[in-house]
Specification:
Structural class: alpha/beta
Shape: globular
Pfam family, one: Usp
Strand content: 25-35%
Family: Belongs to the universal stress protein A family.
Protein name: Universal stress protein UspF
Organism: Oceanisphaera sediminis
Oligomer: single chain
């Protein structure tokens, strides 16, 4: 059983969320907490990044935070609700940094099947699995 669990959610794999939550809850210690993380990589990977205003980013953060809060309230029992964090950066680096910073014992994350695009470069999930200091469960 794990006391500190991190669920990095990206809204791309929503069909897998029920499995992610069910797995996290099964592995959660009775006094454990489940934390949610969203990583916005918009300013890192896109040529239009300089065009994103601080106001636009702030508004996006508010919308994402509300979605994560709604998700937390609907899916995670009150006794296991942890923190909601929204960060900006490279997805896998940010997940790993947050896991280390907050003494996360288990990361449960959704991932799609690898395609040609991720065959050589690797997906965020595969990078997290390779470099995490804690247990990682990938849901497909």
């Amino acid at each position: 059983m794990f006391k500190q669990i991190l669920l990095p959610l990206d809204f791309e794999h929503q069909a897998l969320y029920p499995q992610v939550v069910a797995s996290a809850l099964k592995l959660c210690h009775p006094q454990g907490q489940i934390h949610l993380l969203y990583v916005n990589s918009a300013r890192i990977h896109h040529a239009a990044a300089p065009l994103y205003s601080s106001e636009l980013i702030d508004n996006l953060n508010k919308v994402v935070e509300q979605q994560l809060d709604d998700f937390m309230q609907a899916n995670i029992p009150a006794e296991h609700q942890g923190k909601i964090r929204i960060k900006h950066g490279v997805v896998y680096d940010t997940i790993l940094a947050q896991a280390r910073k907050h003494d996360i014992e288990l990361i449960v994350m959704p991932a799609s099947r690898p395609g040609a695009k991720t065959y050589l470069l690797g997906s965020n999930a595969s990078k997290v699995v390779r470099h995490a200091d804690c247990t990682v469960l990938v849901i497909r």
